[in-house]
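so i finally got all the pieces together for this one. its two components total, 633 residues if u count the protein bits. some of the lines might not be protein, just check the labels. i wanna see the whole assembly predicted at once instead of chain by chain like last time, that was a mess tbh
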Amino acid sequence: MLVADVVSEASRPAPEVGTRAARRRRRTGVLFGLAGATAAVFVVSLGLGPVPIAPGDIITVLLHAHGGDAGGVENGLVITQLRLPRALLALLAGAGLAVAGAAMQAYFRNPLAEPGVTGVASGAAVGAVTVIVLGAGAVAAWVLPVAAFIGAAAVLVVIQLIALVARDRSPVTVLLLGIAMNAFCGAVTGAIVANADDSQTVRGALFWLQGDLTSASWNDLALVAVPAVLGIACLSGMTRELNALLLGDETAESMGVSVARVRAALLVLSAVIVGGVVAVTGVIGFVGLVAPHAVRLMLGSDHRSLLPGAAMLGGMFLVAADTVARLAPGGGSWQTGIVTALVGAPVFVVLVLRTRGIARRAA
Amino acid sequence: MSLVARDLGVDLDRRRVLSGVSIEVHRGEVLGLIGPNGAGKSTLLRSLGGLVRPVTGEVAIDGSRLSSLRPRKRAARVAYVAQDTAAAADVTAAELVLMGRYAHRRRLSRTDTSDEEVVRDALEAVGIARLADRAVPSLSGGERQLVQIARALAQRAGMLLLDEPTSALDVRHQLRVFEILRARADAGVGVAVVLHDLNDASRYCDRLAVLHRGRLVAHGAPEHIITPERIAAVYRIAATVDADVFGYPHIHPTAPHRAPRSAAPTGGTP
């Protein structure tokens, strides 16, 4: 009877192709939708500011931007010299932070792990502030991102070591470790800034710490582009390994994944991205938390769609936040990091409540 | 052609949990690993899967040392299902089973029709083809366990290791799991399974290996292993052993129990 039972279930029709195709269509639709929305937000962002520029003119400028003549559009240079590098920086930094957040969440198997929460961004800030205060950034352009990378990597190594010793990667432990690392790195940063000689340097460091894209230039973009694109590209090639880690280290290892190597790669790549972004933009929170979380709600945890989705949503979120910061009352004195926190915190609360609701209904 | 452990010694947290264990898993058989809690059954199973580095001895599959194989090569030969299947992954059952193809797929290659066929076969083999598109978190504990077994089947390995695969399952799902293991063994796969229920072990395993305090104390056919003396020595309980309806050894612990019934059980409603 049991055999018959098994056979009867086994002989039920395999999942209809239509169901699977429908799911794929939905994924493709969501990813294309995100791409379209990101492009729209990007173009609209370029048009907004003290000198409004129509979307049609923006597209003309973008098509001619490589020639440097702004396509003959009046005020086109406002786009090519000011808004375009800033918007591209926001797009890349947002994508990088979101993908680094998704990678760290896989690394810790914890949806709360992201550069800002775990103290990794604070670690990068320690490295960067040290360079700013010492004036070592003048030596070479790469000194700042390298120092930020070292700070970020050091915090990740410390968290990993503590989690290993405690044999605990639970959300509560990672959150507590993050609080401790944030407080520690904040104190170190504060001590460095407080003991700086030049008050102008202090003001610059403090302003930078809040996360800001105000003075974004093409050179800044180049500094972020290399680590962000490299990190995102490498992580995008590791989606199967990231998916396997969702099942636990032991199961992933039994499936043929070299877990130690993958973990080391995730650690280095996350630190490269966060270090590169933080070195230029300062500490910008919530992007790495909100973007992967929102995409997970729409598409599930499969990293093949999670990473591109989070990259697009993170980029779009930071472009939008930076646009709000530029247009904010007070003559643009708001910083991008303040806007991401003001918007990101309540959005995250809503996402958490929605996730809880879904979990309860599934139980 | 078999999976062989020789003189295996394993330390966990600087404590010796396995000592001098030598055992073989043959293709086409179901080997049950039994013993009290803390005897080292799960550690032996993980060692057989190459997931624990032994301090003495070695594990070899078909003559090749497991530790010398790259993870993908090892996974193509030995599949493992952990006890804890509480997967946090919000993916569908088919996607999770597809992950079992990792060892056979080239880096960055797309999912091809042969992978999809293997996934469909694995889901059908465990009788959950209808669940293919369901999200794993929405499945019951028993269904998740079956998905994990299907994932291991999709690895198409010659050896299948399972750690207490029936511990969280109702009797219907338990029987289904044993049916699947039997079918795999009959298809030429070597199966090693950690079990706590001695009557299940006796009925569904071709051979049993008894672990006690990190050592292999006996192994052989169930009728030679399941004896009142050995149960008393290893589990420290008194029990009688008779034959079940199919003739396999069946143990009856003699204490504690309710007061003996005056009449034989009637077997429920007529």
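The radius of gyration of chain A is 22 Å.
The first helix of chain A runs from residue 2 to 10.
anyway lmk what u think
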